[in-house]
Write a structure and sequence with these properties.
The complex is a heterodimer of chains A (261) and B (254). Chain A has 261 residues and is of the alpha+beta class. In chain A, 66% of the residues lie in helices and 10% in strands. Chain A has one domain: 3 helical TM bundles of succinate and fumarate reductases. Chain A has a 4-stranded antiparallel β-sheet, covered by helices on one side. In chain A, helix 6 packs across helix 8. Chain B has 2 domains: 111 residues, Beta-grasp domain (Ubiquitin-like (UB roll), Roll), CATH 3.10.20.30; 130 residues, Alpha-helical ferredoxin (Fumarate Reductase Iron-sulfur Protein, Chain B, domain 2, Orthogonal Bundle). The chains are: A alpha+beta (261), B alpha+beta (254). The complex binds iron/sulfur cluster and FE2/S2 (inorganic) cluster. Iron/sulfur cluster binds next to helix 4 and helix 5 of chain B.
Chain lengths: 261, 254
């Protein structure tokens, strides 16, 4: 085995992989949240649909998105490997084991929390991501007046078996900016109008919250980034930004559409 | 002085390493709250011996919290309910009259049971032998304070060096990881000038031995730090990780 491979098959190396993939996925969450804030815009999905097209077609973002899929897979596979090691390291369990006396609940249940998130990801990606790429999606045509950007005319074009080309241009004679885009917003809107879907989101985001409350801080500890100067900052970020703000932001989207749209 | 108490004990009994063990219930009568936990077991054992039964085996030596021999998992926690206390320093006043106490050995593949509550912890010795030392030529006694070491660094190294090798960290960890122990042993030398020549070789050798012994990986739950009788901090683990990754991925040997 090469020295490099040896390093990553050691117990510390496996944790390094968990840490780095986890942190990468954390940075993605920030981007994903900020981008999707456009769902809150009252524009019938114009900004959101334009953004979806950009995210799926801009080459550097495409490269990052492949890294992202790989990270999800590696993070999950290594979690399984580590769980197996753990069972090997303690083949006979305790009759009485008082975990809550010495460690937070989330730190002892990362596997369960991660599994909930993974199940959610499968549903989430097959509904939106896979459908956006290969599914039957309606198209929307937005005509925004060049003189008054609040004057928008929308024409829904239902799916008729043929893909309609994406377009974004200025029609000067008509005095409008035209956007023809796959109407992912409509799919999102319809999904978020179903109570069970909203519930799934809220459950998954609670799991994400607990997963990150432990995971974010833990990733830095694994990297060896632990000193009295910046640990308070890491703790704050892990608990309030990644543990509360981000999951709350994501959960707010289906809740907002379900209750207020 | 408070009244003596009567307790029910559920104790893991296992004839030898190969035998299948089981929990056996005993009653401990008329126990003084001022007894230590091990003295309470002594009383129970005397009763067993008088009945020609096999006494309960458990490890102990100093009985003053410094040798790391005692290793009882009491009511779901290594060394019992008291913070920063070894089993031998735990007193029966920490329990209530009529209470049921569950006593088990450390559970880890790397710590096989020898008999009853006593486990084989030689894996720790082998990790130490892999690198937990400094190589120096013995010669004349050097003058004291010849090598300047800042007080805070000396204190931190001393804190790491207080590890008594009891194994409670492994017992407490849900992954049976030995990271707290190994990192304390790595740190006590990595912090001091005398430990520098072998610093990066040491950490690699000790981590490799730790993995070879079959300990689990660390998921940073902090259970080890909370249960360690010597309050070894998990900042030692971070330091070890730093040194290990530096040695493996960044630093050339020369
Ligand atoms: S680190 Fe603490 S719990 Fe672990 S062996 Fe040393 S003294 Fe015991
Ligand atoms: S018997 Fe020595 S530490 Fe408990």
């Amino acid at each position: 085995m090469s020295k490099f491979a040896q390093t990553f098959s050691s117990s510390l190396g496996k944790k390094l992989i968990m840490s780095l993939t986890g942190l990468f996925l954390c940075t993605f969450l920030i981007v994903h949240l900020i981008g999707n804030l456009q769902l809150f815009k009252d524009d019938q999905g114009q900004a959101f649909n334009a953004y979806s097209y950009f995210m799926t077609h801009f080459p550097p973002i495409k490269v990052i998105s492949y890294l992202l899929y790989a990270s999800i897979i590696v993070h999950s596979v290594y979690a399984l490997v580590l769980t197996r090691n753990k069972n090997k390291a303690r083949p006979v369990g305790y009759a009485s084991y008082d975990g809550k006396a010495n460690s937070p609940w989330s730190s002892r249940n990362m596997g369960i929390l991660g599994t909930i998130i993974l199940v959610f990801l499968v549903v989430h990606m097959s509904n939106f991501w896979a459908r956006y790429h290969w599914g039957e999606l309606p198209t929307a045509r937005y005509e925004v007046s060049l003189t008054n950007p609040n004057d928008v005319k929308i024409t829904p074009i239902p799916f008729n078996g043929q893909e309609i080309a994406h377009a974004d241009y200025v029609d000067a004679p008509a005095g409008v900016q035209v956007l023809i885009a796959k109407d992912l917003y409509k799919i999102v809107y319809e999904s978020f109008k179903q109570w069970w879907y909203v519930l799934l989101y809220v459950i998954a985001m609670s799991a994400l919250s607990f997963h990150l409350i432990h995971g974010f801080r833990s990733a830095f500890q694994t990297l060896g980034w632990n000193n009295s100067k910046y640990v308070p900052a890491i703790r704050f970020l892990g608990e309030w930004v990644f543990g509360v703000l981000i999951p709350l932001g994501f959960a707010a989207m289906p809740l907002y559409i379900y209750f207020f749209k | 002085m408070s009244e003596n108490m009567n307790l029910t004990l559920k104790v893991w009994r296992q004839k030898n390493a190969e035998a299948k063990g089981q929990m056996v219930t005993y009653s401990a009568k008329n126990i003084s709250p001022d007894m230590s936990f091990l003295e309470m077991l002594d009383v129970v054992n005397e009763g067993l011996i008088k009945k020609y039964e096999d006494p309960i085996h458990f490890d102990h030596d100093c009985r003053e919290g410094i040798c790391g021999s005692c290793s009882l998992h009491i009511n779901g926690r290594p060394h019992g309910p008291k913070h920063a206390t070894t089993s031998c320093q735990l007193h029966m006043r920490s329990f209530k009259d009529g209470e049921t106490i569950v006593i088990e050995p450390w559970r880890a593949a790397a710590f096989p049971v020898i008999k009853d509550l006593s486990t084989n912890r030689q894996a720790f010795d082998r990790i130490q032998q892999a690198g937990g030392f400094i190589s120096v030529n013995t010669g004349g006694v050097p003058d004291a304070n010849e090598i300047p070491i800042p007080k805070v660094i000396a204190d931190e190294a001393f804190n790491s060096a207080t590890c008594i090798q009891c194994g409670a960290c492994v017992a407490a960890c849900k992954n049976a990881s030995a990271m707290l122990f190994v990192s304390a042993k790595v740190s006590q030398l990595a912090l001091l000038p005398q430990g520098q020549p072998e610093r990066y070789r040491r950490v690699q050798a000790m981590v490799a031995q730790m993995d070879a012994e079959g300990f689990g990986h660390c998921t940073n739950t902090g259970a080890c730090e909370a249960e360690c009788p010597k309050e070894i901090s998990i900042s030692n683990i971070a330091r070890m990780n730093r040194d290990y990754f530096t040695a493996r991925l960044i630093k050339d040997e020369v």
